Amino acid sequence: MRIETCFLFDLDGTLVDSVYQHVLAWNQALDAEGISLSVWRIHRKIGMSGGLFTNQLLRETGREISDAHVAKLGRLHAEAYGRLSGQIRPLPGAKALLDTLTAAGIPWAIATSGRMETARVNLDALGVDPDRVPVVTRDMVKYAKPDPDLFLAAADRLGKPIETAVIVGDSIWDMLAARRCRGLGVGLLSGGYGTEELERSGAIRVYEDPADLLDHLDEVGGRR
């Protein structure tokens, strides 16, 4: 019996070149509230849920942050990200990769830790209509990455067992979530994490960007 593969994609840094805009948006939000955190430390947290981001923030700054303050930081981040939205572009090969999967009849979905408020900017840049393509955002699940809820929900939207999923992401949080739900993690370098980091977190293959993955799609079962 042949197992039919499906693909589940992260969004920021995986299909869309937007990681550093998120970093800058968080930096602006934190600065507005008088919270000092080095930009590189912010980058290391992109891809995890906003709740975990603030937990890490507490540990690194030693500050207590109320729920209301957390919500305010989220709003400030979304507003700053909106101001940077004109810079957002699909990563090389992203559209071609999705088109190739669609033409081959291989189901795919998007699962992002971002809320639809910010994800829609990326989807628009990518040309993906969430009314026609399964898109699971942070708003739709109880926990975000590194918990597996987003990928489990995306596989469910496709009607496919998670064990048949190739889970493509750019961060260690994607790979940890993929490992926890028993999907096959494939890492991309286009979000700023290194090969060894991604492999230690569970990636079975690592490629430069969507274009590189497309060139090697047969290595991860992307064929009919």
TrEMBL record:
Keywords (A to Z) from UniProt: Hydrolase
Gene Ontology CC entries for this record: cytosol
Database matches in Gene3D superfamilies: HAD superfamily/HAD-like, Putative phosphatase, domain 2
Superkingdom of the source species: Bacteria
Matching InterPro entries: HAD-like_hydrolase_sf (IPR050155), HAD-like_sf (IPR036412), HAD-SF_hydro_IA (IPR006439), HAD_sf (IPR023214), PGP-like_dom2 (IPR023198)
GO molecular function: phosphoglycolate phosphatase activity
Biological processes annotated in GO: DNA repair
Protein known as: HAD-superfamily hydrolase, subfamily IA
Organism: Methylobacterium oryzae CBMB20
